[in-house]
């Protein structure tokens, strides 16, 4: 697997040659009341519904690495409603969703010369990744790594209700304010993520 320059070997977040987002439509609503706006980056919802219902806006990262995930001022679940705090310490920000793959499926999908985009390796032995490229994975894939010397405001944790299933949540390590980019540590090369902790 080829990894983008500067990317961790555990989490690949890059754009490869010929990369194109699918042009999906927002699934918010029911029947004839479905939103229908384009949801090519924030699928399965459009950017507006993602900002309102999930509290996350996807836009250019302040780190100069492409897109990033930011706390949205439009979030409708914050308490109190006028608070600048979008996610309180300990809140689940989002879940890293996608297709769970073993090494054989992963290698069948990605050649050695191709970059694996938006994959989260959660185990080395056995090799397990969550691949969010072609799924309705949402916005966790846009959470960038916190640079050295800059503390992360979020962390990836094992899903407490599904320990046998490889599911990963992103939790706020501290209060995350309106407009703040959501950043986490990706882990290291010691096998199962040292940064993915039990809740």
Can you offer a commentary on this structure?
The chain has a domain of 132 residues: SET domain (Beta-clip-like, Beta Complex), CATH 2.170.270.10. With 199 residues, it is mainly beta. The protein has two helices and 13 strands. A four-stranded antiparallel β-sheet has the order 1-7-8-6.
Write the layout of secondary structure elements.
Elements: E1 11-12, H1 47-54, E2 56-60, E3 67-71, E4 85-87, E5 92-96, E6 99-102, H2 103-109, E7 119-124, E8 127-131, E9 144-145, E10 154-158, E11 168-172, E12 176-177, E13 183-184
Parallel strand pairs: 9-13
Antiparallel strand pairs: 1-7, 2-3, 4-12, 5-11, 6-8, 7-8, 10-11
InterPro entries: SET_dom, SET_dom_sf
Domain SET: 54-187
Protein name: SET domain-containing protein
Provide a short characterization of the protein structure.
This protein is mainly beta and 199 residues long. The protein has a domain at 11-17 and 60-184: Beta Complex (Beta-clip-like), CATH 2.170.270. 8% of the residues lie in helices and 26% in strands.
Class by SSE composition: mainly beta
Beta-strand residue fraction: 25-35%
Q: Roughly what percent helix?
A: under 10%
- Computed over alpha carbons, the radius of gyration is 17 Å
Helix-strand sequence = EHEEEEEHEEEEEEE
Which structural traits does this protein have?
three-stranded antiparallel sheet, 26% strand, disordered N terminus, 2 helices, Beta-clip-like, disordered C terminus, four-stranded antiparallel sheet, globular, mainly beta
């Amino acid at each position: 697997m080829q990894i983008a320059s500067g990317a961790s070997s555990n989490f690949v977040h890059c754009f490869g040659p010929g990369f194109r987002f699918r042009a999906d439509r927002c699934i918010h609503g029911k029947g004839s009341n479905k939103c229908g706006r384009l949801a090519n980056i924030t699928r399965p919802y459009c950017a507006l519904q993602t900002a309102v219902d999930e509290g996350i806006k996807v836009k250019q990262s302040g780190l100069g690495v492409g897109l990033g995930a930011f706390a949205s001022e439009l979030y409708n679940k914050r308490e109190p409603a006028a608070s600048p705090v979008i996610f309180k310490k300990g809140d689940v920000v989002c879940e890293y969703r996608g297709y769970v793959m073993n090494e054989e499926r992963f290698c069948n999908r990605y050649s050695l010369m191709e970059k694996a985009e938006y994959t989260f390796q959660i185990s080395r032995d056995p090799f397990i990744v969550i691949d969010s490229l072609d799924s309705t994975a949402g916005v966790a894939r846009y959470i960038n790594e916190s640079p050295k010397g800059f503390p992360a405001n979020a962390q990836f944790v094992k899903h407490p209700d599904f320990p046998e299933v490889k599911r990963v949540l992103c939790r706020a390590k501290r209060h995350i304010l309106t407009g703040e980019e959501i950043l986490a540590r990706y882990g290291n090369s010691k096998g199962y993520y040292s940064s993915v902790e039990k809740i």
